[in-house]
Amino acid sequence: MGNKRLFFLMSGLVCFFILMGLTLGNRGPMTWPEKFVKDSISWTQGLFYRPSAAIAGFFEDIRQLRVIYEENKTLKLTLTQYARDTQRLNELEAQNKRLMEELGFTERQRQQNNYTYRIAEVVTIDPDPYNSTVTINLGDKDGIKENMAVMTVDGLVGRVSKVFGFHSNVQLLTETTDTDNSSKAIAVTVKGNENQPFGMIESYDPKTGELVMNKVEHADDMKVGDTIITSGLGQVFPKGIEVGTITSIGPGEFGITYKVMVKPKASFSHIREVFVVEVPKVE
Fold it and tell me: Which stretches are annotated as coiled coil (predicted)?
């Protein structure tokens, strides 16, 4: 009987509250018991609403964190791709600039000398600092022969030492392991000098980074700052290729000839493209 009484009492209260809600719009100001009941119900609803809203907001924040994580992951991938594309673009622009300069160089050279310039890319560099050798991507199939001169836009860098089917080794002027200087001597002269003083580039001084020019008989026809070019008399290097600039002139061995130090025109570090000079055959 106690449960039934409680049930009827709760049903009556609910009906009472419903009737109050329906009649509030047609009545005047609420009495204090009505206000008390209204405030009590609102306060009770607030006790349940605030925790439920906090829980719902917590799960919403977790969902937003997941969305932010996925967006951040996508942005990182996009940024990485952008950086890679930017680097590739910079490399292509630099390569295009170099090739444009080299194209203009070969056009000027064709007007001066009847040589063929075969452009090649450096594919490997010998890590041995005393064995200055690089490998280019032209070989026997391209008509490359041993002892062909190799140069850059700035000047002479070396000669072809070995030829393979698709690649060739280039011995740079900075080579210091070869004790036979005569095998890599370069006959040179002074550019624009009518007397054409003669000398031989025979070695490289790694301490000063300069080429050593020996067998100079008439140093009076030379001065510091003159440009040294190949003379074409050595039957290996064609005539007219710039080698370097004279930095000093002094006495040579036994005081009979002079020793001239030459700063190379070309840079031997970070070589990317070179020209193999092909001299036309003379019948």
Answer: 82-109
The H or E element spanning position 96 is helix 32-112
Q: Give the dihedral sign, CA 195/199/201/207.
A: negative
Measured distance CA(168)–CA(137) in Å, rounded:
7
Which residue bears the tokens 């070589």? 271
Beta strands 242-251 and 168-172, pairing class: unpaired
For the chain, the structural domain boundaries read 33-112, 113-278
Q: Which amino acid makes up residue 136?
A: I
Q: What fold does the segment set 113-278 form as a domain?
A: Thrombin, subunit H (2.40.10)
E strand intervals along the chain:
116-125, 133-136, 149-151, 156-163, 168-172, 186-190, 199-205, 210-216, 227-230, 242-251, 258-264, 273-278
| CA-based nearest residue to 133, from 118, 141, 123, 144 | 123
Torsion of the alpha carbons at 227, 232, 234 and 237, rounded to the nearest 10: 80
Q: What is the pLDDT of residues 39-57, one digit of tens each?
A: 566 666 555 556 666 666 6
